[in-house]
Specification:
Blueprint: E1 10-12, H1 14-20, E2 32-37, E3 41-47, H2 67-86, E4 94-106, E5 115-126, E6 129-138, E7 141-154
Antiparallel strand pairs: 1-2, 2-3, 3-5, 4-7, 5-6, 6-7
Catalytic activity: a (3R)-hydroxyacyl-[ACP] = a (2E)-enoyl-[ACP] + H2O
InterPro entries: FabA_FabZ (IPR013114), FabZ (IPR010084), HotDog_dom_sf (IPR029069)
Main location: cytoplasm
């Protein structure tokens, strides 16, 4: 039996993703958004291929996606959710910064041919700091999980500490 997304599911293709994220190859790590609900959650995927630049050195004999890039992929997914929630698109005068990562755990390697499915939910947004719970799975198995904190700043204010 095949399950499908409800007709009301909101999705994003790569062209729309690129209109929200400034990242480009090789740092754009979200290929498609399967569903999102503003103010609540988002599900996105990263298709991992053997052609990824990082596999040249991590590791040539056993290709493994670096954990920091799995975290980055989930953070990019979280940024998409924040922008959709706020109803804005970033411009050249805004930047999204990490301000914290808590409880990061890596449970299974991710390699070529895997599809990293990222589920991110907003835990809170207070004083410009967004906090999310993020889980990345491959074939239904948890590969990575963490709580992420980010802030959106103007480029003019980007050199100031997050709490200022």
């Amino acid at each position: 039996m095949t399950t499908t997304q409800p007709d009301t599911a909101k999705t994003m293709d790569i062209c729309e993703i690129k209109s929200y994220l400034p990242h480009r190859y090789p740092m754009l790590l979200v290929d498609r958004v399967l569903a999102y609900e503003e103010g609540k959650s988002i599900t996105a995927i990263k298709n991992v291929t053997v052609n990824e630049e990082f596999f040249n050195g991590h590791f040539p004999h056993k290709p493994v996606m670096p954990g920091v890039l799995m975290i980055e992929a989930m953070a990019q997914t979280a940024a998409l959710l924040s922008f959709k929630t706020m109803g804005i698109k970033p411009d050249e005068s805004s930047v999204v910064y990490f301000v914290g990562i808590d409880g990061a755990r890596f449970k299974r390697p991710v390699g070529p041919g895997d599809q990293l499915k990222m589920d991110v939910e907003i835990l809170r947004n207070a004083r410009g700091i967004w906090k999310y719970k993020a889980v990345g799975t491959v074939d239904g198995q948890v590969a990575v999980e963490a709580e992420l904190m980010c802030t959106i700043r103007s480029v003019a204010d980007a050199s100031q500490p997050a709490g200022q």
